[in-house]
Write a structure and sequence with these properties.
Low-confidence stretches: 1-25
Oligomer: single chain
Helix content: 10-25%
Largest sheet: 8 strands, antiparallel
CATH topology: Jelly Rolls
Number of domains: 1
Shape: globular
Structural class: mainly beta
Radius of gyration: 20 Å
CATH architecture: Sandwich
Amino acid sequence: MKKTCFIAFMLAVNWSTAQMKVNTVNTPLLSLSSAMVYRSNTSTLPSLSGGALTLTSESGGYESKAAIFTQKINPTGNWWLNYTYTASGARSGDGISVVIHSDSRGTNAVGGCGGYLGVGAANCSYGYAISPAVNFNMNLYTGAGNVGVSLGTNGSVGGYVTTGAVSINSGNPIDVVMKYNAPTNELTVSLRDAVTDASWTSTYSVNLSTAVGSSAYLAFTGGTGAATVTQTITKVYYRGAKG
């Protein structure tokens, strides 16, 4: 009887420990409920309301915006980031960037407006490129090439490729999953149109240890010019280690 109770007790302890490990892995380090700092080249800052982060507005042109998590991350190990992107209004320009950076400006880092997406070089007499950084860019402006995406470093933009049947300027919510495999230095990005269920995936080779190091900021930046768009981010979950 005592032996049976002991075995049952040990099984319960082991199960509880396993559950704790699972919960630790699956609990996001960052979400939209985490502390963030907002930056802007105008008097209108990014805003968080009803679980949606609004980066840029259709009513405001020539914007450069940034929302930066204050908790630093360690992007050199395995991690994954989920978010949903929605473009509304005119949907003509310019776009956003998801930025992992160790810029010395910290939570003050923001780039230029318009096609620089709040991550690139100075524009609108404001900001300068966020660097060192790795930035995943989503471009809506046809004047900058394809409506599509690219992976840049140190605030570089351009070189956009189309994303198949997933149209990021359709106005539909676009679910984005970014997953980093540290042993192979590969970043896989998957897009899914939440309405049509169309999907697209690409894998990029990038060494985050070399690019930004083991203590970095995660930020969402956005830009508009003469062409404008309201851009919102929802359902943000980052799972990975602290920096």
